[in-house]
Structures are given as C-alpha cells and as structure tokens.
Amino acid sequence: MAFSHPWVLWLLPLAILPLVLQRSHAKSYSWVNMLPKDPLSDLIGLILKILAVFTLLFIILGLAAPHTLTQKVERTGIGAQIALVLDRSASMDDPFSGSNDMSGNTTVGETKSVAAARLITDFVKSRKQDMFGMITFSNSAMYVLPLSENKKAVIAAVAATSGNALFQTNIGSGLTSSAGLFDKVPDSGSRAVILLSDGAGRVDADTQQKIKDWFDRLHISLYWIVLRQPGGLSIFNENYKPQENQPLPPEIELYEFFQTLKTPFKAYEAEDPKSLQSAMNDINEREKKAIKYLEKIPGRDYSNICFAIAAFMIGLLLGVKYLEVKTWH
Fold it and tell me: What CATH class is the domain 72-237+246-295?
C-alpha cells in the first residue's frame, strides 16, 4: 500500500478528538448520586464517539489517496521488439510515381516519407503486443524513442518524421544507434530492426564490424526496405558489373554486407506505395513469434472507498442526532 499524499497522514492524531472533547450541551449536576445508572446510554455514547473517530480517520486516509503499487505480470503472447530506422534524407521528400494503394485509392504525388509514415502507422496499430523504438538518420542518427509499449507515442514519433530533411544518408550511424535501443533491455525472444531508406551510403569497415558484433550479441534480425526509383538500379541484380576501376554502387555494396550478418536478414524493394505495403505485410507475418513480455497492471485507488465509508458513518451520526431527545433547558 502506498499514498499519493503521505504528508496528510500527519493529521491522523486529530481523529481522537471525539474521545477527548465533551458534547457542547452536556449538563453538570451538583450531586450525581441521585441520577440512576443508564448503561445503555453510556454504551451508545461510546459507540457514537467511536463512529466519529473512524469518520475522521477515513476522511484523512481518503485525502492521503491510498493505492496499491503497479505490478508487472509476465505474459506470453505473439509479437516482437522492433526498432524502426527511418531515412530522413532530402530525397525521401520526393514523390513516388503514380500508383494505387491496396485499397484502390490513387496515391499520385504522395511523397516517400508520407507514404512510409502512413504505412508504418498502420503496421504499429496492427501489432498489439510489440515494443517499438525509433531512430531517424540523415547526415547522422537522431534518437527519437526508446523501446516502448506506448503505441500513441510511437505513432506520434512516426508522424513527426515528415518534417524537413537533410541531404546525406548515414545508414551506418542509424544502424548502430538502433542496436543500442536493445542494450540493457530484457530479450523478449524476438528482436528486429526495420531499416527503411531510398538509397544507401558507404559504411566504413569499423562501423561494419560494430554492426556485425552488436546484431549478433543482441540477437537482432534485420529487414531492409529500399524505396527504389522506377527504372533505377536493383540491389538484386546479380549480373551488375561496375565500370573498370569503379567501386560497387553503395546499394549493392551495402546489400552484400548485410548478407554477411550472422543474424537473419531480408531485403525488399518498393517502387510505389503498393509494393511498400506488400513489404510491410511480409514483415508483419514473419514477426509473429511467441514472446514473453511484462504487462503492467496499474495500482487500485482506494480514496473513493475511504470517502464512501466516511459518508456512511456521517449518515449514521446524523440519523442518531435526529432521533436524539433534546436536553431540557
């Protein structure tokens, strides 16, 4: 048991006042031996004083707001711990080519960032028992939200990603920061990072090794959704050969690096909102594993119960006062 306003408990000694104070209309007699004994009246008087004591006691306890503490109960459900890593480079504000989404609504002119925010919001709403965290990146990573069960906070964070962006794509920083979200958080049994970008930057060898080590140590799966321009280079093109003395394009180089991870990895390409929706649906189906999670059960507030008991006792006292024979003058 705990109290929201424990300082009010200092008023508890006031509850004994009915025992030490006399009634205002009590009479004094010069020789009480002439009065007959009335044990019943004495007992009723004592009971009324005790009622008054308990009335004050419950009023003070109600003002102190007693409640039980929040409990955490381990449950088994279907879900995952998911870190959303969203590209906020300036190119994300470019529109998709004209297309229809899965419900048949035209999405001509919808930018990639807006489409991503819309579909990720639907994804979050459909996941009842997941924990979500968020990292955004452009020239560097930005910590947005730790792993949380608060869906409203996650949806608000996703909506905030549609602001102005910068011109660089530092995927390495975004991935290392996303791995940090899982550090010191109990492993539920299923962990994943969803990386959504419309391009790729080069990741140096030290950062690559750090990503490998962290994803392996923390048991994190990786899903990479590439928002590809129609007709652009595909990361799945196995026949692509760069020009002589030229390095591989960043997208293909990054895709080959991701394939060396010891933990599960899956890549997708999306050219329009419909294909992006398909990728999100596939991830939704893949990340439905049995997990253990802690459900928070809020404490119960007993203030109203205390006030109700006090009101009942006041009613009894008023009833007795109404039936009382008035003292003669």
Answer: alpha beta
